[in-house]
Every structure is written in structure tokens, then in C-alpha cells.
Amino acid sequence: KETKLWGGRFEESVTDIVEKFTESISFDKQLYKHDIMGSKAHASMLAQQGLISLSERDSILKGLDEIQRSIEAGEFVWRTDREDVHMNIEAALTDMVGEPAKKLHTARSRNDQVLTDFRLWCRDAIDSIVASIRNLQVALVKLALKNEGLIIPGYTHLQRAQPVLLQHLLLAFVEQLDRDAGRLLDCKARLNFSPLGACALAGTGLPIDRFMTSNALGFTAPMRNSIDAVSDRDFVLEFLSANSIIAVHLSRIGEEWVLWASEEFGFITPSDSVSTGSSIMPQKKNPDPMELVRGKSARVIGDLVTLLTLCKGLPLAYNRDLQEDKEPTFDSVKTVIGMLEVSAEFAQNITFNDERIRKALPAGYLDATTLADYLVKKGIPFRTSHDIVGRSVALCVSKNCQLQDLSLEDMRSLSPVFDNDVYEFLGVENAVKKFSSYGSTGLECVADQIGYWVAKLEIN
Ligand code: ARG
Question: Which residues form the Fumarate lyase N-terminal domain (predicted)?
Fold first, then answer.
């Protein structure tokens, strides 16, 4: 067996069971690019500070480039006995360039190294997720553009409430996703500080320049406190919290679309290309992608809970428990990106069933609140209007008709202020036209929203 990089004081090698249990190379090799980036910045800084020679720096940089090439070509052999990505790369570098490689770990610990890698990795992951969010927003706005003017029932308590433009409803999702992107970008700004040079926990007496490495790696500044730098994982907790909120938003879209695709609603028809069938029931066509979006939100939330639980009992500073921070993070990122991608795919492959929706609209007295507003405009206090319209609805229920079918006489029996102009407020088409408040489902308000998103997302 090869002696470990930390093997000096050890007389026995670790057992196979311990080696297998403690390794992280099987998953942290994903950090290789950021590990190499960090090592290159570190080596350049060591040379600038006179801690290694320029020629030592050059062999380190050249060796690291070669290692990156061989990893990307699939030639690099990851060794479990070398424990993690940091020691795999350092040991391979030593195999390759010899003595200079032994100076690379000067004024560095794996504790600050892993966090440098991880923060850089999260920074890139955030950019990828934000790009996927933008892509879904664009798909939703395009879906809205395709369905201009379509009115659908709006629900509260999953009971028919008021008529809304489909565009308005789709843009509600676009708004939610925009805050999701905002949360990620806030998180990115907060995590973008450099732990490198914090070393094990206390810093170092060697004359390093943490500002130089921070700059070279695109961090805003070095972290002020070395103990904090190696101890905390709040940046990942924040990241996974933001991911969990995204997942919950997507799960709600999933639920809505699964309902809409049901025979009972029948509002949308997903194309075959985004549906799957049943192994026993030949007639089935199921909206599985969106069901799985709903389902996978559980994983993303679970990943956050894993990390919260991981951190809650830890004393300062680094503890090996923290190695468990990576898999949930990788899983959360991969899952959220998949959910965003498939939701966009689904949005591009559904059609709204205008006919079916139009037939569904008359039921449920969606215009009742607009009728109450009519009475308010005639000077009736709202509470009284509410009661008058409530009694109008009861009359319709007994006559098995809609509000617009009531005769003026019928209505006047409930309030003398009803006039012929009342019919301009009744029926969903009329009702939608009456909305005018900022942010409402009124035609102009929604057109303004569409205009805002088309410009913001640069849709043409
Ligand atoms: N693989 C470790 C992790 O992910 C790297 C840091 C290990 N440090 C140590 N002293 N054992 O956390």
C-alpha cells in the first residue's frame, strides 16, 4: 500500500472498511476543475511571495494543466486509497513532476482547499440554474403569447372564483421564478468570498497574500476570519434553501398541469412527446414528467434538511462530518436543473383546449364579484352588495341558470338599483373587461405585463 500524504505519524495503514467508508473521491471528483483552478492560483501566489521558485511554479502549473487534460480525456485514474479529489490531484502531480509538487500544499489545508473548490463550484452551479430559470420563463411567456385572450376560471380553494386571462396566470409563475433567480444571485454574492489561506483553521505564519488568490479566483475578497472560513456551510444552506423554494414552485406548476391534463379539467392536452403510457391499460396517456417534477421536489427539500441536520450540532471548526455536505448539494443542483428543463419542455408541448375551456366557463358564477362591484359603483355599500349578489346567486341556483339569464325584473326584486347596464358586467367576457387595477387580470394590465417580460427576457 502507498503511504498516505498524511502518513508520517502512522504505524499501521487504515483497514479496507475504514478506507471505503471515509473516502469521498467517488463523488468529490466533480470538483476537479475548481480544485485545479484553486491550486494554480495558490501556486502563483506562493511564487510571488518567494515561497517557491518561478521554475517550481511553472512545473506545478504545467503538471496541473496536464492532469486536467487527462481527467477530461477520461485517462486519469481516480484512486480510493488517495481518499479525496485534493489528495488524488496532489499525489498525481507529485508522481508527474516530483519535488516541486511537494511544495504546493505550503500554507494550505484541505479544510480551506475544499471550501475554495466548493464555493467556486456553487458559484458556477448558480449560473447554470439561473440560465435554466430564464429558459423556463421564456417558455412560459411564449406559451402565454400563443394563447392571447384566452379566459380560464381562476380558483381559490380549488373552487371556481373569478375569470382570469390565462396569460395572467402563466405570468404569475414567471414572477415566482424571477424571485427564485434573484434569491440565487443574492446567495452567489454572499458566497463569493475566498476561504483560501485560512489553512486548517488558524491561518499561517508564512507570508502568503490572500488578496492575490482571492482576486485571481474572482472572489470579492478573502474571508475575514479563518475559523469562520473553514467551519461554516451557511452558503450551501442558503443555496439549497433557494433551490428548495424553486422546487416547491415547480411542484405547484406540476400539480396544476397534472390537474389540467385530467379528463375532469381537460384544459390542456400534452403532446405525446411529453407523455408516457401504462404497461397494462392500453388507453392511458399520463403527464409523468410533471408528476415527477412534483415528486422530485421532495428530494430537493430532503437535501436541504440533510444539510441543516448535518450542521446543527457541530463545534467549530472543521469536522469530518462536513464531507457529507457535497452529495446533497450535487443532488439538489442536478435535480433542480432537470426539473426546470423538463418543465420548459412540457410548456413547449401543451395545447390549451379553447373549446373545452369555453364550455367550462359559464359554471360557477365567476362574474358574481364583478356584479357586486357594479352595485358599489351605484352607491351601495359593499357588504350590502355582497348580500344582494349572494341572493341573486341563490335565485340562479333555484332557477338553474346563470346571473346573466336573470331578468331585470328578477334582479330588481332584490335591489331597485339594478338597471339595463348590468348586463355589461355579466358573463365572463364582460367580467374580465371590468378589471382595471394595477396588477389585475384586466386586458390592458395583462398586456403591460406581457410587454414587460417580452422586453426583460428579450423575447422576439
Ligand atoms: N474530503 C474532505 C471534505 O470533503 C476534505 C477535507 C478533509 N480534511 C481533513 N482534515 N480530513 O470535507
Answer: 8-302
Q: Cα torsion at 453, 455, 459, 460 (round to 10°)? A: 140
The DSSP code sequence of 392-409 is HHHHHHHHT--GGGS-HH
If one residue of 6, 32, 79, 114 were mutated to test the ligand 1 pocket, choosing by the most ligand atoms within 8 A of its CB, it would be 114
Residue 176's Cβ-side half-sphere holds a number of Cα atoms within 13 Å equal to 19
- CB-hemisphere CA count at 13 Å for 146? 15
Is 146 exposed, middle or buried (CB count within 10 Å of its CB: 0-12, 13-18, 19+)?
Answer: middle
Choice among 9-18, 85-94, 448-457 with the minimum mean pLDDT: 9-18
pLDDT mean across residues, the chain: 96
pLDDT at 460: 87
Ligand 1 neighbourhood includes 44 CB (under 6 angstroms): no
- The reported pLDDT for the residue numbered 379 is 96
pLDDT band at 203 (very low <50, low <70, confident <90, very high): very high
Residue 54 clears pLDDT 90, i.e. is over it: yes
pLDDT greater than 90 at residue 5: no
Asked if 71 contacts 109 with a C-beta cutoff of 8 angstroms, the reply is no
Question: CA 389 to CA 431: how far, in whole Å?
Answer: 14
Q: Is 436 exposed, middle or buried (0-12, 13-18, 19+ CB in 10 A)?
A: exposed
pLDDT band at 281 (very low <50, low <70, confident <90, very high): confident
- Distance from the CA of 111 to the center of ligand 1, in angstroms? 6
Q: Cis link prior to 317 (omega < 30° from 0)?
A: yes
Q: How far is the CA of 114 from the centre of ligand 1 (A)?
A: 7
- This prediction has a pTM of 0.95
- Is 56 a pocket residue for ligand 1 (Cβ < 6 Å)? no
- Regarding the beta carbon of 367 and ligand 1, being less than 6 Å apart is answered no
Instruction: Give 61 Cα–ligand 1 centroid separation in angstroms.
Output: 23
In ligand 1, the atom with minimum distance to the C-alpha of 110 is: 6
Q: Whose CA is nearest to atom 3 of ligand 1?
A: 323
Is residue 157 part of the annotated active site? The answer reads yes
Q: Where are the alpha helices (DSSP H) in 217-313?
A: 226-231, 234-260, 288-311
Percentage of residues of the chain with pLDDT beyond 90: 92
Query: What average pLDDT does the segment 378-404 reach?
Result: 96
Query: How far, in Å, is the centroid of ligand 1 from the Cα of 88?
Result: 13
Catalytic (active site) residue 297: no
Distance CA 256, CA 279 (A): 25
Terminal-residue alpha carbon distance, the chain: 62
Bridge partners, 308 (sequence order): none
| C-alpha torsion 349→352→355→359, nearest 10 | 140
